[in-house]
Design brief:
The protein has one helix at about 5-15, and strands at about 20-30, 30-35, 45, 50, 55-70, 80-95, 105-110, 115-120. By secondary structure, the protein is mainly beta.
Length: about 120
């Protein structure tokens, strides 16, 4: 970056007045409470915070095409010692990706700090 400008500074320079990127830490997952860094008193809640679906536990579908293989470790009938079967098609899965206590977040503060949108977790 030119002149030592950080990515955060670059993004904030592109945003309209009353909008900024802040960082926070999840204090409680349920009910959601996020403490904003740099302001010891500011804790935001689910009433004024939007959390995108990918940062929740959610159901989705995947397409799979594989064959299971499992071997038994002894005893029993030979017919049950090993088996294999196909798993194919669209399958429903649950993704466990909800915010957890201690997660560090990038948050978009807008409407002059009256509303918040969680952008993503900060990589550890």
């Amino acid at each position: 970056m030119e002149n030592g400008m950080s990515i955060k500074q670059l993004i904030q320079g592109l945003m309209p007045e009353g909008v900024c990127v802040v960082q926070g830490v999840v204090q409680s997952a349920s009910p959601l409470k996020i403490k904003i860094e740099g302001d010891e008193k500011l804790i935001i809640s689910e009433q004024n915070t939007y959390v995108p679906w990918q940062l929740t536990d959610y159901d989705t579908e995947v397409t799979v095409d594989w064959r299971s293989e499992e071997e038994s470790g002894g005893g029993g009938m030979a017919a049950y010692a090993a088996h294999s079967h196909a798993i194919k098609g669209r399958k429903k899965i649950r993704v466990h990706n909800a915010l957890k206590t201690g997660d560090k977040l990038h948050i978009l503060a807008f409407n002059h700090g009256k509303q918040y949108y969680v952008l993503d977790r900060v990589a550890k």
